[in-house]
Amino acid sequence: MEPIDFIYESHDDVSIYARQWPVEKEKIKGVIQVAHGLGETADYYQEFSENAIKAGFAVYINEARGHGRTAGDITSPNYREKAGDIGENGFAKMKEDLHAYTGIIQNQYPVIPIFLLGHSMGSAVARLYAFDYGSEINGLITTGTLFDSLELDYLLQIAAQEIKERGLKAPCQDT
């Protein structure tokens, strides 16, 4: 089956771009919901999704705030102005965006197991999700994960300082 692209409205009325690689209901073993890494889009997961489908797993991925088509028209000259900006409390909002997407998946596959795969930045969001909504998924998979919250806190402090000194769009200097 071909991937399906669509837009859904998140908890705070932000339009979130999403893609799903469905599997025929009689062949499906489970659903893998992906929380992607920093700067990634659904396009990065094409090969992964094709292999998951062969194994009987549907794949669902939304492009996080400040990323890909959720950030705007990627062909527009103004795209770079919005890209990368996840907004105030961005990680908490991305967690809620994932939760809204889980609801869409549960409506389509009410009795099929859902596994949340978080990569890099997405692993941090996925862990926040699991803390609040872990009972709604059947498993959590993380890759490219920071080892502890002190590491994440330190990196977020560096990022905040660089944004304050150089602005949101300036290249990173300290990490």
From TrEMBL:
InterPro entries: AB_hydrolase_fold, Hydrolase_4, MAG_DAG_Lipase. Transmembrane segments: none annotated. Residues 27-149 form the Serine aminopeptidase S33 domain. Gene3D superfamilies: alpha/beta hydrolase. This is Serine aminopeptidase S33 domain-containing protein. The lineage of its organism: Bacteria, Bacillati, Bacillota, Negativicutes, Selenomonadales.
